[in-house]
Specification:
Number of domains: 2
Shape: globular
Bound molecules: iron/sulfur cluster
Number of helices: 14
Structural class: alpha+beta
Distance between the termini: 61 Å
Number of strands: 10
Order of helices and strands: HEHHHEEHEHEEEHEEHHEHHHHH
Radius of gyration: 20 Å
Length: 320
């Protein structure tokens, strides 16, 4: 069954597929996660504190679940924004991955259902499930000090997804491998968000520019005044960009995750969004209607226009 799933044409664009028994998460992880929350390390990621029981127990997400199929997809980009522009995280260059990957996984599930029957639940950041834990349990990558899962040959610019199923499939060997431990990610992080106890999301530019809605608190504003934060529009890739595991990795094979090309013939881009050239000034000049039309289907919609404007203004602080 594993070979069948790994060779499904519907999953040909995945960069790694692994299998884990759908058991309650182990105590070490559970305790670590409880401590992380108790220390407030989730920052503006309030949702991380919700649904604790669901997060710990896949049976609560799919009754009778026997297996977690962990599937990774690369979103690495062949062309990056010019360095003179404020940063937009690579994952947000193309269409919203929730929709793109759900379509792919739905087709795979239909095929599995036809062959083997069973119940399934697709998770793409859409259910409270610790995706990094399951990726490591299913042996699809190694743990990086930057908090990312790193897949051999594909690096860490990846989306982690899961299919929970009632099919019983022999689990793969969990990962015990770690990264090269060079420390570059920790030195590169401009805010000190990578701590020995894991990511401190209250200091992380990704969380502060994407998940934090409304005005920043005083302590967050001090972080957002740092030079690197002044050049961050949406998300942050710095601790991944410097990682040697991400040197010479291929670009995603999934076209929908690439930015729209700006060609005169493309009706799609005429009114649409070109994430390769989008500037802070562009954002400040958007009306709500523009935002709703141009940013439809883009991950950049997530914080909402007000928060995006807040980020854009921040990048222009020293210039105006
Ligand atoms: S995403 Fe940016 S701010 Fe967050 S830990 Fe990585 S380098 Fe630091
Ligand atoms: S930059 Fe170095 S320490 Fe950080 S995840 Fe990559 S290999 Fe590990």
């Amino acid at each position: 069954m594993k070979d069948f799933i790994r060779s499904l044409p519907q999953l040909a664009d995945a960069c790694a597929i692994g299998f884990a028994a759908a058991e309650r998460v182990d105590k070490t992880f559970d305790d670590f996660f409880s401590r992380w929350l108790a220390d407030g390390k989730n920052g503006s990621l309030d949702y991380m504190a919700n649904h604790r029981e669901l997060r710990s127990n896949p049976q609560k997400l799919l009754p009778g679940a026997k297996t977690v199929i962990a599937i990774a997809f690369s979103y690495n980009q062949p062309v990056l924004r010019d360095k003179s522009l404020p940063m937009i995280a690579r994952y947000a260059y193309g269409k919203d991955y929730h929709n793109v990957l759900r379509k792919i996984l739905k087709k795979a599930v239909t095929e599995l259902q036809q062959h083997f029957g069973g119940d399934y639940r697709i998770c793409i950041d859409s259910a409270p499930i610790p995706e990094r834990y399951w990726a490591l349990r299913a042996g699809i990558g190694r743990r990086g000090r930057n908090g990312c899962v790193i897949v051999d040959g594909a690096g860490s610019f990846i989306f982690l997804t899961e299919i929970l199923t009632t099919l019983e499939i022999e689990p793969d060997e969990p990962t015990t491998r770690t990264c090269l431990d060079c420390g570059r990610c920790i030195r590169e992080c401009p805010t000190g968000a990578l701590t020995p106890d894991g990511l401190d999301a209250s200091r992380c530019l990704s969380a502060l520019t994407i998940e934090r809605k409304g005005p920043w608190t005083d302590s967050e504003r001090r972080i957002m005044a740092l030079p690197a934060a002044r050049s961050t529009l949406f998300g942050c890739d710095r601790c991944q960009t410097v990682c040697p595991h991400n040197a010479a990795i291929p670009a995603t094979p999934i076209d929908a995750l690439l930015p729209k090309r700006q060609t005169a013939s493309s009706a799609d881009t005429k009114n649409g969004l070109d994430t390769l050239t989008l500037t802070s000034d562009d954002i400040l000049h958007l009306s709500q209607d523009d935002f709703d039309n141009k940013f439809a289907g883009s991950p950049l919609r997530r914080p909402g226009l007000d928060a995006l404007r807040r980020n854009a203004l921040n990048t222009l602080q020293d210039k105006h």
